[in-house]
Structures
1.
Amino acid sequence: MSDGPPSIWEWIGRNWDTGRADSIRNLLTDHLTMSLVPIVLSLVLALPLGLACARWRWLYQPTSGLMNVIYALPSLPVFMLLISVTGLSQTTVIIPLTFYGMAVLIPAVVDGLRSVPDHVRQSAVAMGFTPLRRLLRVELPIAVPVVLAGLRVVAVSSISLVSVGALIGQGGLGGLFTRAYQNPFMPPVIVGIVLIVALALVADALIVLAQRLLTPWVRARKGMAS
Amino acid sequence: MSWLTSFFSWLGEFFGTAANWSGPGGIPMRLLEHLEFSALALALAVVIAVPVGLLIGHTGRGEVIVVVSANLARALPTLGLLVMFVLLLGTASIWPVIIPLVLLSVPPILVNTYEGIRGVDPELRDAAYGMGLRGGQVLTRALVPVALPLILLGCRLSAIQVVATTTVAAYTGLGGLGRYVIDGFATKDYASVVGGSVLIVLFALVVQILFALAQRVAVSPGVSQRQRIR
């Protein structure tokens, strides 16, 4: 019964901060970097691309087709093919994850903008909003819930997908899985899974919180209804 | 552009080697294995997820299961799950690897089947009852055909997931195209890595095309609006 809970805590204690690159602390930091960069980057890239697709409708069909194809590509072979270009670096994991994120977020941005009711848009025009101000003050805020729903999917799946990078030596906490497999030992697997799911839950909660702060009118309306 | 030239020379080396085309480690065999494992996992997932999704969608009970499973499947790291099952159950059979494959491919089908049934216009449901259909008949004759595009979308998303996870599962000893990538990487045989990767990518794309075609054929013309209702 040496695999019971006490030995997990003991194992964490011994491996938390060994000073080596594969200490849990360093793996956690790597994991955060490799998941946060694609999450932020895919949002930053998807916003203008989604805006363009919403404005010039002919652009949306080919873009969403391309994004569907990208989304269907399995991550491991894509990492492997990128190695010859970007080497065994974090970039090799970050680039595909950014594209997967965009594949989810571009349609979300387009759907969000399309969810703006016509009478709202016309009211903004009638009130003298310039196109840019109308976009920033009226259309984007209304699109926020749909875009953030997409971002929640992207955040949670990016955080879990980073671990596949362990198969090319760049997987953050995924490194715990390869270590546990090579030297059969359960605690690293449990710690890895728990930490990754916990990170995903925290990221998800933060986005939900951001949504509340960015769309105060949703709760105000609910308050009025009750 | 030196990486591009080495890319093509690796590709030529991999596909040009006659030994790669025959025997248990040959491309046809590996392709067949990949297809077999993916199809097995996907079929099991469909058998589990579609009835449960239909039931929850139709009765409106147990919706929590749908939400929790969808979130959990996204958050759980596939590699960690694979290693955990193999460490727990050993590698005597392929089941320790197939079980996590099935577990991860159930939620997309479950969620979309549920959403599909929930999203059916209530008036259509009432009309079906009004025509004298009973509960089960309403489900199979009216709700399922209308929900079919979403059910198939769930299957397509699951197929994406399964093909990718089968590749990763080569790390824990499963056969299939992932072997070229995993073994090639371990022995620094980059022709294998690049050739295997290209094969997997092509495999994934062909699976997607097949699903797109299946959707065209299976969905009723009235539902997909290929035929305008006058």
2.
Amino acid sequence: MTTLQKDAATARLAETDRGQFSLRTIVRGLTGRPLPLLGTFIVVFFILLAVIGPQIAPYRFDEIIRGATRQPPSTTYWFGTDHLGRDIFSRVVWGAREIITIPLITTILCVTIGATIGMFIGYVGGWADEIIARLLDSLLAIPALVLAMVMLGTIGPSVAGIIIVIVLLYTPIVARVVRSATLNLRASGYIEAAKLRGESTAYILFREILPGVLPALAVEAALRFSYAIFLTASLGFLGLGVQPPSPDWGRMVNEARSTFSLAPWALWFPAGAIGILIIGVNLLSDGLRRVFRREGQLV
Amino acid sequence: MGISRLGRSNVARFTFALVALLLVFAVGVASAQDAPAGVLRIGMGAPVVLDPSLHTNDPETVLNRAIYDYLVEVLPDSTIGPNLATDWTISEDGLTYTFNLRDDVTFHDGSQFTAADVVFTFDRIREVGSPALNILGDGYTVAADSDFTVSFTLPEVNADFLYGLSAPQALVLKDGTTEPNVIVEGDNPYVNFNGTGPFILASYDPGAGATLVANDAYWMDGVQLSGVQLVFIDDTVAQVDALLSGQLDFIFKLPFAQVDRLTDVEGINVLQRSTSQHPVIRLRTDAGHLGEDVRVRQAFKYATDREALNDILLQGRGTVGNNDPIAPVFSYFFDDSIENQTYDPAMACDLLTEAGMNPIEATLYVPDAFEYADMAALLQQQWQAGCINVNIEVRTEGYYYDVSNPDNYFDVDLGITGWGARPSPQILLRQAYTESGIDTYFNESRFVDADLEALVAEASQTTDQDARRAIYTQVSQIFLERGPIIIPYFAPLFGATSGRVQGLEMAPFVGQSDLRSVSLSG
């Protein structure tokens, strides 16, 4: 068998072993059932709100309306006003941008870094796997919120700080999931074929293994996104999130807590928005898992 | 028959459940309504430092004030009144204070109160470095002239010395007490809580509360309470809930948001007390910092609408005074003729242009306490119109007030800090606005002004009230012209009582509120 014939054989082998899925399959899977459809609708709605929200909000998020403190929901102020006389509807709408943007950035970073680490240690194995995997496990042993509070208490609350903290917290989880998926793929024929062709480690990781771990990665990314939303809101609630007067939903809940008996609407709407968004992302994530499982991409 | 259809076991279960339900209801009603006769139940945070000479916060003072007495005390009108001392004289040079003491006072252990106890107390205050020394100074000597006469000799005139004798920590201890307020093993665990005060400690549980019973041998007539129960609840929202449900009679230091919950509630009285406590918005004035140029300090004042801050944050319940720490509550010393800068953002922009600093880009640091984060949000909007753009950085209180952290209250260029009530303006002026205050981390703006230093020093030695008032007017003028601080308002103190409480008047330092005049109806 010539070298050319050998390459063609390994390429065919790779094509048959490698995971395959199309965007159309995913869309059909998500829209074919009511709950994933609802989750998709909710997520798309909030993303749209984040994009066009400031254009449709009647007030700026920090605009104080003199003489309008703690106004109940009405046709003038749809969600009412808060203790400083700020329109809650406008703040919720403006706040969608932050509650989507920060978790989105952190999720992209977590997935990129975590997938790279996970594929690498899963593929090379040996002492590198042992050391890095144990290091990641030790990071996972610390409660997320406690670690976040300590770190932000030390470096001070800021958007950059929140992103760093969430990435540090969630990257090990992504890495561990990807490592497991990589271990399953490591002995596959198309990986062996790539090795025989003399491909570099980077090529094998990103061209051969990555497509195979994408289903697991996609589901994990959706889950991380949902957890990142929750953590961002929790940090905001604890006063360690985005700084005032930014319309951070978690901070809004905290500010409204002490006046709940006087102006419950100031708590209802941001808390409701957090809840609905997280439910939506979870439904979407669950839908993705079902699609991939049905297509045989996940066990 | 109904019973046979249900079955005996079901009837028994039903009966048991009904009885249990009734019991729970009865206990609930009893705990909510059957308040102990004559016992005032106070909800407050748990004390941490119990030593009468070293405690600092209000809950600690409430406990100690009930057990011990002061030599003299600050009356509700901020003047000094007698207590264990019946009267006193001040020598012509202002350096010697001589007190005549009551001869009918006994400690809880039955021993006689004498001048030796006063000498011991104030020697100990100096030895342990009590916070009371901030007003007393540490150069005094104290000696017993007789069993019931005691003299203090000062190294220099201190016009606030009497206020120092009534500082929260200046409580009179029994001569020879080595471990005041330390609980011991044995039959009498509270033997070290030996004061002359109106109440005797009967039980103390650090996690739950304390019970005090009336001192039958107390020297003052007219104490009507049969006891005081201190209930330790750190969360103010939970305190309000407990008051509303009838489990407490008195709570204090209420956040403003909670005051609205209690206003107009039947059977609840909301108490309000004007105080000298205030937030300070301040600029650092030392070389290279934001407030070095006086025009910048002025611009910040013109860019701040203090009336709006008071209206929005406190619904107008605060008192807008001058931009200096001489609060309106110090009525005799407060000069209401000072014409403060009014809100004029255009003037602020002009001043900054003149100073070559238009626009200012800065960071405003603020502790996550009281209404300060909201104040920062309002200031950000107001200042924007005055060519001052700030980012807000909120820090937890513990972090912000710890000078070992970066961006702490003392180091930042622009920050908001909270200042508690003081019995005299002199204390704040000396602590926060003189050069000596830099080493003690009080003068956070690093404001050092030769004229002000001289006036503060002169005021500290001026016992004549008219002369002192004239000095303070000059002090206010200096702050008006070049002071680096904005005081948006002097905040009131809020508390609340159940309807059965009568005669309770909150002191500006609320822990020192006098419970001897309190009675309970019903």
